[in-house]
Write a structure and sequence with these properties.
By secondary structure, the chain is mostly helical. It has 16 helices and two strands. The longest helix has 34 residues.
Length: 391
Amino acid sequence: MAEVNRFWRQLGIATNWPILVAVAVLTAVGCGSIAADATANVRMQLIFIAIGAVGMFLFQVVNYQEIGRYAWLFYIVSLLLVIYTVMPGVRRSGFGSVPNIKGAQAWIDFGPLHLEPAELMKLAFCMVLARYLRFRSNYRSLGGLLPPFALALVPLVLILKQPALGMALLFIPALFSMLFVAGAKIKHLSGIVVLGLMFVPVVWFAGTGAPVLRHLPPLLKEYQRARVKALLSHDSNQAQSLDFQQEQALTAIGSGGVTGKGFGHIPVGSRVPEAHNDMIFALIAEQFGLVGSLILLGAYVVLFAAGVEISAATREPFGRLLAVGIVAMLTSQAFLNLAVCLRLAPVTGITLPFVSYGGSSMLSSFLAAGLLLNIGQNRPLVLARSSFEYD
């Protein structure tokens, strides 16, 4: 009871309200757009939001440093669940199975609900990396960067195997942001980026007819290559056959104009595949136009700015790094989803945080918001010099 009373008192802390208001706006806009597309889905979305709100409350009411003690356990359990989805011979139907949904084995069937372990994995990664980096400085050497990169690469490779390219990409900005704030040397991080860019041709041509690289196993699915080619192609026939989803989404976005067609009016958006999920921004833009789109983007700016402020004002190293990782993860997820909708990136199947339809995505987003609120209201007094300051 004392913890609950303290929780209600802490709701008055200034950093809480921007996050709470932003989350409320995003979920409301999402529910309205999902209702316009399919009434049955919005009922389920409200259940997902209720579950997520309970999770946010639980992650907010207990001090984040107490939660941090279980970071490694959370990471290992999430990793085991991801491994389970890619194990050969796993059942494809029934309770506890791993069904093939939209060409990916990324969900575990728990009866009426499907859990996507990768959504929990990305949050567990931020927690365990912040826990690992908090009192170390060995990552300022090139060899010391190996453990942080291993923590990211193990789940990343497994998630690529599902395959879920968009989800896997989210680990990279979170990793680099947390290492940068922790004080890793810029020349080391820049060198790794250059090596990564040099490896791109290997990823693209592995397993194809290219000399030497044809002996490697394919690292990309053929449909993934086709999506990239369609994005770069100016052939309208190819765009219609391979890029139909994005073409329809762009048409819906443009048809909304400045003020939109009004709530529930989505004559173009109704033809967009997975409109309530990956392409929900098309529904928002068509109904509410440029004005509604700017409100959505403004809510994200408020959410991310509040997260950055919490991180900057937190001197305790674990909380500071965790806040940075969460903001980087949510920012990159929102940016990637919007880039796909605007046909600036190939389709990756990534959701829009707090907005898209989906239980696992909604739960992980609410848990992330709960941790941000927790860090903002439980910042301990640190008498030592600021974290991650090096001579």
